[in-house]
Amino acid sequence: MHTLEDHAALTRVIDALYAAQRSVLRLDVVIRAELADVGEDALSIVNLLPPGTYTRQRLCDQLNSAITAHGWGRSLGTFE
To answer: How is 34-75 classified by DSSP, letter by letter?
Structure first.
């Protein structure tokens, strides 16, 4: 079950990734999410990211798209 804690943990991951840089690699996102111990469902959304480099907006768009496709928008929320 996805929770507000999953959303908060993933938000912290996103904030930390972009605190000092404008773009990050998919691998960086996956590793940070694993280290932050986000929930299994939230981690599965992160693992759906295609390889590449992401600005914050592009990353959030990709995460939100996957969340919507899985019907988890109400329980996991969206990212900005």
So the answer is: HHTT--HHHHHHHHTPPSSEEEHHHHHHHHHHHHHHHT-HHH
